[in-house]
Amino acid sequence: MLRDVFLTCLLLAGIGSLRAAPPDSFAVFTGKYCTGCHNSTAKTAGLDLTTLPFDLADTGNFAEWVKVHDRVRAGEMPPKVIKERPDPAAQDAFLQLLASSLIAAEQKATATQGRATERRLNAYEYENALRDLLHAPWLQVKGLFPQDGEAYRFNKSSSALDVSHVHISRYMAAANYAIREVISVKAIQPPTATTRYYAREQKSVIQKINNPRGQAGDRAMYPIFGLKPQPEVFSRQEPMTVGAADPEARENEAAAWVASNYVTGFTYKWDQFKAPVSGRYRIRFKGYTLWVAPLPEPKSYLPDWERISAGRRNEPVNVYTRDGVLNRHVGSFDLTPEPAVHDIGDVWLVAGETLVPDASRLYRSRPNNYRNPLMTADGAPAVAFNWMEVEGPLYDDRSFAGYRLLFGDLPVQPNLDVRSTEPLKDEERLMRAFLRHIYRQPHVDSADVKRFVSLVEERRKAGLSFTQAMVAGYTAVLASPKFVYLKEKPGRLDDYALATRLSLFLWNSLPDEALLSRAAKGELKRPGVVRAETDRMLADPKSRRFVDSFLDYWIDLRKMEDSTPSSALYNDYYLDEALTEAATAESQLFLDDMLRHDLPASNVVDSNFTFLNERLAVHYGIPEVKGVAMRHVDLPPGSVRGGFMTQASVLKVTANGTTTSPVLRGKWIMERILGFEIPPPPVVPAVDPDIRGAVTIRQQLDKHRSDASCATCHSKIDPSGFALESFDVMGGWRDRYRGVDENVPAIKGRGKNGQPFAFHYALPVDSSGVLPDGRRFANVRDLKQLLLTDKQLLATNMAKQLVIYATGSAIRFSDREQLEKIVQAAKSDSYGLRTIVHNVVESDLFRNK
Amino acid sequence: MTLPRFATRRPLGRRRFLRGVGVSLALPLLDAMSPVFAKSSKSASPLAPGAKPRRVLGICNNLGLLGDQFFPTGQGRDYVASPYLKLLQEHREDFTVFTGVSHPNVDGGHPADICFLTAAPHPGSGSFRNTISLDQYIGEQIGILTRFPSLTLAVNTRTRSLSWTGTGVAIPPEDKAAAVFKEMFLQGSAEQIDAQIQKLDTGQSILDTVADQAKTLQASVGARDRDRLDQYFTSVRDLEHRLQASKGWERKPKPVVKAPVPIDPANSAAYMEKVKVMYDLARLAFETDSTRSVTLMLEGTNAPVLEIRNAHMTDSYHNLTHHGKSESKLAELKIIDGCHMKLLSGLIADLKSVCEGEDRLLDRTMVLYGSNFGDANAHTCFNLPVILAGGGFRHGQNLVFDRITNYPLPNLYVSMLQRLGIEADKFSTSTGTMRGLEFA
Which residues does chain A have within 8 Å of residue B125's beta carbon, measured at their own beta carbons? Predict the structure, then answer.
């Protein structure tokens, strides 16, 4: 005992000194408790503490010592089986000395380099920056870039954001394209017009009515007039439309169908419209739902278009843009039995795009011998469209702001040629203004003005027109490192760098004029100003970009489409875009709500509300939610839904479309919800799931886990994943697994693809488990309650994810104290998410590079 | 970085040089006239001086072939040719047929044709995004060696493409052989060349400007940050070299060929004639070393009733594939499939008849023929019919894999990349190289 007091004193004396070799006092502690195993001969776990250097500037060595610290502190070392425990005071002193050495070493490096390393904008930030700075909200250029990498889970860190020659050429291509589009809007400037595009005048609709190859049966469309069938049009005895000569009759002509698009936008679209320039358009559809009786046997699976009546329910319609292969969901409405005009509001379109209405509840036929799953003995639901109306392009005071930025008041010809009578003067003047706007810095560097103006000059001398030369100059600016890279200097961020960091955090874009002018006046240093700016930015619709891109990485929402529900096991979900879209929206609206109302971080695990529309509510078995619009819904008591873990989106991205894995879902909860990092497994063959339904994944894993070397980790990873076994690959509740086995009769029914079900209900699900700390749960409700007992842990995880996302650096050893402070300061607000965001922004982690 | 830009091209003869003079007298052509073949080169890299040019032609017939007529029985070298393979009998030693291969997780029926050379999973899903195709991957690696990094061709479509960039953007296919022929072999006007060069010059000026700024920034930051800016700087230089290479091609006269400008049949019912025209064009492109990488989509889904000599078709090609086992439809489909095989046989024969150096052109040209459909009737995308002819492999065999679980077809693409000399151990969902396929 006496010796331990001596040891404590020895250790305490070492505090504050930073050495290249471990302090002598370390060896006394480790020699007593550690080197029995961790020595040069045994090298237990590959660690030899008798020779381990103490070179904390070396990242590998630093990480070793962090591991030593963490395992001793957690009481995992020395192992429990060793009877003699370290004297607490000596251990504390050892840890304190080690921690302070680690912190000192890290802070030394931070002082010269900063936590974060210089990085470029990621593809989403680059796209948003172009949209905001060029006043071109319609711009779509993210897809031009190679996929950004991922570091510490997010696309916000230097090591995830490499640059290759492909990036450089894409910056040039994206910038050049954006600039030309901005000029076109002004140069072409089509007058605002309201035009109706009648369904019966669309080529792809006519083709489907005329019933050519592959469009027979219920894939065909059918001409109707109100609720009157028009067989004479169908058989081509009468023209497709009365045309402009009879406006009143034309108004009632419609095309009707019972089967939706093959895949979204694959089979029909409003092809007579193409947005003449990029911009804002107002879109309306007129149509109605109806009911079609079946043909007599043996063709009773097909609609009898000569026996139609008013619709029996509303049909949800999702509207997509269509241009080549790109689809964007831009609006939705409920089509009613009563013919009505549905305004989907203002839509940003890129030049050349058109639109497709997709009645998403109707089936998407797949050969062979497809049958409409919605057809009953009584008939089937159908939709009919009269027309799409486009009002636009709609102009406002910002419509030409982008052009003004590029060319001021200089006139432009319809062929995009800008005229300048004094090119030399204009080049310099325009470039200077452009640089000030784009670089977001207090002063325009005259070297830059010179650099880019000489480029313009040189190009003009080489034969380019004034316009072409200016476009080349602007393209260079938008591809230049000063635009593409962040400007953070080690130490405290200056006002501009702080404004940029704040803006990239909450808007995924560069600062706007308001934030910039506060930075220019040095106001960001004043107390309360950054907080007020944070509130202002969160109130702006642009904050939705934060919600979306944070979720894309934190819970992998970007992977929603990476797997497709198996057509054999899950053809009731297969091709159901309305479901995956609603599931994505649920997660986004949920986080948005937490942020807006400062809801406790524990909502991540469980909540008594969520966001649903009819499709998702049906999926969750929650009654009385009608219509396509997503809305706040209070969950019935005892519901398994609420929180992220049991959202369909999360359950989908953690499955592969065919089977679920408690290992992957367990890992997901450990990492995303609880904030532990699970190291990658050694190379072992994965469990091969059995889709015949003869064994369950639990039975297979039990075998796997009886191996002691697997069990050490898997007993920590898997348990919470078992609770999620109650949910299938799309997040639907299940009591039994599904299986496909030709010797077992399949369940009756047809999927969304018109094919019969191939699955049967197999073994029952067992969702019980034991957490590593010994606490038992019977199902996911229990698990949620257990996880909710440590609210601070949940809050710490959210703070950690937010800090990484906002600063582009991992939480390092010396950051832990700061992280704790962020969380503690939110305690009295029940760890509200918005409070945590504010605390992150106020923290040194955020304020320093 | 210096790339031997002209290394693998045949040195220009004095006469050809003079023929090109009209257009390009003022341009620095002389480096192309030096003897570029350094025979001593040992490097396997296709970019190394003197490396043997190797090429790939990827063909997708997007309505497939009747499986029971296509797949042979038996395996290895002793397989018994199927009715369709009998039509390729004279080339038996020059191709390998694969049984039991498919692209993992590529489903979705018709939309899967665009994944034939990308193997990107789930083309039928709503927000599917394609990935880089084999030919574009090749183009990125060795495209700098030829005037055209790649050629994307099609029959009866200008939208369904086999060629996709790394960012999932389709390269629209060219369906007019005459237009491609002109692009490849007819000299552009001086104005056209100047305009193109001016474009490339503008690119270079932009790169110079941003590189200059990067340099000044590098001076003012710490070591770690400097590394990142250095990456930017290097990338700019890399792109400059590529632009320079493109510029080199603009200034070089195009190859002269004896073949006349092809005539594209106007009628989409003349599908088979169009296929033949495209096969000839691809062969010419390789013969003149205009590119090393060609894709050809044979689009049948929207074709009308085909016009085939000495045969009478009663229904459209697409409808025939949904034969529902009807004998009469199957008989017509067999005629169409037979035409496909005969045309392929003709292409292989043509590639054999041309010599390049000491090799037959076929031995340096991998011809990949296959489909996204294993069974177009049922819209299934497994057990794909696939043939690889020529290109420097040991052929004459049927490689058989599990017909239930299937073997990853992307493994073949890795083998093809390696045969090209490109260092690649993975492509899309590959798990290795094609088992049983060896270099000749």
Answer: 263, 561, 564, 575
